[in-house]
Every structure is written in C-alpha cells, then in structure tokens.
Amino acid sequence: MTRFLRPVCIIPVGMLVAAATAVAQTRPAAPSGSAPTVEQAIELAAKGRCQEALPVLKKSTAHVPDKDLKYRAAMATTRCAMSLGQAETAVTALFLLNREFPHDPEVLYITTRYYGELASRASQELAATAPSSYQALELEAEAMESQNRWDDAGAVYRKILAQNPNVPGIHFRLGRVLLSKSQSSANTEEAKTEFAEELKVDPSNAAAEFSLGEIARRAGQWSEAVPHFTNASKLDPGFAEAFLALGMSLNSAERYSEAVGSLERYVKMLPADPAGHYQLSIAYARTGRKEDAAREMAIQQQIVEKTPSGSRP
C-alpha cells in the first residue's frame, strides 16, 4: 500500500522574520521612563549620574532589607547629595549609616569629612551674606583660637561685646582666651571677671561655673571652689568633670563624707578613669569604709597597669 506524504510547506525566511516582528509588536513594551532599581541607581551614582540616581536612592534606601545593599545605597546617597548640595538628604543618610553601621571605619570617615564640609559651606555662606554679624565675628575668633592667636581672638570677642553686650557665650570665650594666653595673676583675675559676667548674661552656663571653681581649686580656695562645682553639676548633670572636681575639692577641704556622693557619681560615669577611683578610695578610707577603700584602690591600680606607660595620667 502506497503511503502518501503530506507536502511540506516551506516558508521563506523573510516571512518568518516579518511574522516574529509582528508578534513582538503586539506585546506590551516596558515603559521607557521606568525608574531604575536600587542596584541600578548605585551604578548610576558611581558613574556620576547623580541627578538620575538620587531620587531612587532617597525613596528606597531606608527600606532595603539586605544589609550590604543598604550600606552601598546609603553611601551612594550621601555622596550624591553632597555633590548636588542637598544637605538635608546627606545628613539623613549619614544618620542612617551611623545607626545601622555604628563602628564602620568608612562610615566614621565620611561622617567626619562631610560634616566638616557642611560646616565649611555654612561658614562661607555666613561670611558672604552677613560678614558684619556677631555670628560671623565669633567664627572668625574661634578660627584664631585654633591657631593660638590669643590676642587677635580676644580683640574680636571684645568687639562683639562692644556691639552686643548680652550675647551668650562671648564672655566665657574671652575668659578662656585669657587663661590660654597666660595663667598670670592679672589674666586670671580678668578671666574670673569674664566668667562672672557670663553668668549674669546666661546663668545656666555650667562651663562658666566650672571655670570659676577650677580657678579657686588651683589656688587652694576650697570654700570658694565647692559652690561653683556644685552649681556646675546641677546645671549639667552629665558634666562628669564637675563631679570629680567637686569630690577632689571636698577631699582637700577634709569634708570626706560629702565627697563620697559626687565621687561615686563620677566613677559610674567614667569608670575607666583611675583618678576617680583614687579620690573615692581616699573618701572611703577617711570615713571608715576600709573595705570599700581597698576595693577602689585595687581598681585604680588595675587601670593604671593596663594603661600604656606613654599615656598614663
């Protein structure tokens, strides 16, 4: 029995191509303006195309679940925001990085770098827009302080006070400049006057109270030092040095039972400082608490032994 084969229909290649093209044209095309993914945005940022990358990064970075991707996205956000002058976006990204990756060296580096750059930009804008303002003069004086130009800085602070006698902080800074310049009796007395004037302008200035106490303590004037250190510690409960100085002054005045409280507070705040444990051991010993005194002295010795010889207090 003879089989008859179905004839094969041969389609020219050109017709196949045309048909495939027609089918492709019927499929929905991806929108030409679709937003890139976070990965793509990071790549765009690396190529300097921050105008395209930043909107995606701002919207998506905080919600990225993958830690590595979030890290790279936040880094890209910070760099692009700084390059485009978007300070608020940069700071938000830096907060995220420091919260999510608190001890990362690169995070700490760019935080230092970009905050410094933001400060520089703000100071330049201040100098350009309000060069005669007391704020601009204060920045100028602070820069002089950093260069140890004490006379120049003092002159600028006095100029500010001549124009604005009630600006908080200026008397304090002038007093600090006087002590930095020289600890002579004349400068010390003038500095005391400035710190006292600061407290008239701003009674909440704990640093001015502390400075007055420190001048008195160094002169052995315990009865004068104690009230100033007490006030400083009350004005700023986080001012650890005020509690130590108060305890030291009370010990020196042989008011040991009064010293215990402030020194206990200090060692809780800064447990790695041997000076606090040493002073507390003295207060304990003089109030009959021999075991507590021995414990604090042992802690002090342990800290000193662990401290590199070149950095011991």
Describe the model.
- By secondary structure, the chain is mostly helical.
- Among the domains are: 91 residues; 71 residues, Serine Threonine Protein Phosphatase 5, Tetratricopeptide repeat.
- 73% of the residues lie in helices and 0% in strands.
- The longest helix is centred in the middle third of the chain and has 25 residues.
- The termini are far apart.
- The relative contact order is 0.04.
Rg calc: 34 Å
Kindly report the average pLDDT value: 88
Straight-line N-to-C gap: 114 Å
The proportion of strand residues reads under 5%
Biggest sheet character: none
Multimeric state: single chain
> What percentage of residues falls in helices of 4 or more residues?
over 70%
Structural class: mainly alpha
H/E element order: HHHHHHHHHHHHHHHH
How many helices? The count is 16
Cα shape = flat
Unreliable segments (pLDDT under 50, ≥5 consecutive)? 1-32
Secondary structure: number of strands: 0
Explain briefly what this protein structure is.
The chain has 16 helices and no strands.
Topology (SSEs and partners):
Elements: H1 13-26, H2 38-46, H3 50-60, H4 67-83, H5 87-100, H6 105-129, H7 134-146, H8 150-163, H9 170-181, H10 185-201, H11 206-218, H12 222-235, H13 240-252, H14 256-269, H15 274-286, H16 290-306
Core attributes:
mainly alpha, Serine Threonine Protein Phosphatase 5, Tetratricopeptide repeat, disordered N terminus, 313 residues, 73% helix, flat
